[in-house]
Specification:
By secondary structure, this protein is mostly helical. Helix content is 67%, strand content 0%. The chain has a single domain (2-404), classed as Up-down Bundle (Formate dehydrogenase/DMSO reductase fold), CATH 1.20.1630.10.
Length: 411
């Protein structure tokens, strides 16, 4: 126990030590977090009236980000499967980074749900009145918190074993890894069922919502890891195998192809049948009764995803510059498609036929930026601590420059 507490203390101290780039990045993120906290304090005092949400459109930017981040967290499984099922040893160390990002993404997702509550001081009522197993919201609470605990255990155990210079016992983490694979799929499936199970919102009443969620998640998540791993390699001494990045690129390409196919299938079904429920889709893609606030959003998303997919199909996407461009375009496109392009249209028109458009307010956007900054702050600290441990420079029997407050070597 004493050695474990010493490990935690050393990791805590190390998180405050780095070079100039590290301090600048952490200062920028911390500043954005404080801006977000200030904006949320205003929302806490004045209520959800400071957001763009209304009685007609009761879910907005917060739930859009929540949906996107649940998928990003689930995408960690796309590293776990090749390593532990197909035994791709090149991705072995990278699994930890995927799990660490899953932790940060789930933390952000839970924060977005919290700020979306009109009375967060009454949150305990949700815990006291679980309608299990009928309520999909109850299932979502269980799977999200369960996935967070699974990833914390897997990462924490592997990192602590590396710190102690001992081989991890397979019985203490391999079963949890396979549970996490199923759990990762479940968290986004349950989130999709939350939407598709609402009969009063026909725009979501589609059987392909869950497959679309998973496909887009397994594209955007690995794309983010491709970018973050290159930043880690450029700013630390950690080397990322080139073949590992190409494996992630192939995963992104296949997943994005499936996502675009499912989107096309859904668009065909909506417009070709021209059912009574096509109004929401028509509002999203072409506008309705002179209202077209979301039209530029969805067509921008389709353009970004199409360009990204074309780049990924070309052999020249093996070049880092084009690969990074495709990943950035894809992440932005999926964020719009799963956020503004999925959540908002379901509320327009209302069951009474009203057309009330939604536009995020500045205060609402600042809260969202603050949560994203906090998540990146958490991920940065986790990576900052993990790299010296994995490289063997921070261990129970080895002094490290960061322990004395000195600036350690990069990484």
């Amino acid at each position: 126990m004493r050695q474990y507490l010493t490990f935690l203390v050393r990791c805590f101290r190390l998180s405050f030590v780095g070079d100039g780039r590290y301090y600048a990045w952490m200062f920028a993120l911390s500043s954005l977090v404080l801006v977000g906290v200030n904006a949320y304090c205003k929302q806490f005092v004045h209520g959800l009236g400071v957001t763009g949400m209304t009685d007609q459109v009761s879910w907005g930017l917060f739930i859009a980000n929540f949906t996107f981040l649940v998928g990003m967290a689930a995408a960690a499984v796309m590293l776990v499967i090749p390593v532990y099922i197909y035994r791709n040893h090149e991705l072995h160390d990278l699994v930890i980074f995927g799990e660490l990002f899953a932790v940060a993404a789930i933390v952000m997702a839970l924060l977005f749900v919290t700020v979306d509550l009109g009375r967060p001081d009454r949150f305990h009522h949700l815990l006291l009145r679980f309608n299990f197993p009928i309520s999909m919201l109850t299932w979502d609470v269980i799977v999200l918190n369960g996935y967070l605990l699974l990833n914390l255990h897997i990462c924490g155990y592997l990192i602590y074993c590396a710190y102690c210079r001992r081989h991890p016992s397979r019985i203490f983490y391999i079963p949890f890894v396979f549970v996490a694979i199923v759990w990762a799929i479940s968290i986004h499936t349950v989130t999709a069922f939350l939407y598709s199970g609402l009969g009063g919102r026909p725009f979501w009443n589609s059987a392909v919502i869950a497959p679309r969620f998973l496909a887009s998640a397994f594209a955007a998540g690995p794309a983010f890891l491709i970018l973050s791993l290159q930043i880690i390699a450029a700013t630390t001494t950690y080397a990322v195998p080139a073949r590992a990045l190409m494996t992630l690129r192939n995963i992104v390409t296949v997943a994005m192809t499936i996502n675009m196919f499912l989107l096309g299938s859904e668009v065909f079904t909506e417009f070709y049948t021209d059912s009574a429920h096509v109004a929401s889709a028509r509002y999203l893609f072409f506008g309705l009764a002179g209202r077209h606030a979301l039209v530029p959003w969805i067509w921008t998303a389709i353009a970004l995803n199409t360009v990204a997919l074309v780049i990924l199909y070309l052999p020249i996407s093996r070049a880092r510059g084009l690969l990074n461009t495709a990943c950035i375009l894809l992440i932005a496109g999926v964020w719009i498609e799963k956020g503004m392009g999925l959540i908002i249209p379901a509320f327009i028109p209302t069951p009474l036929g009203e057309i009330v458009e939604y536009q995020p307010t500045l205060n609402e956007s600042l809260v969202a930026v603050g949560i994203w900054a906090f998540g990146l702050l958490v991920y940065t600290i986790l990576v900052r601590v993990t790299i010296p441990v994995l490289s063997g420079r921070l261990a129970f029997d080895t002094p490290y420059a960061g322990d004395r407050g000195d600036t350690p070597p990069a990484g």
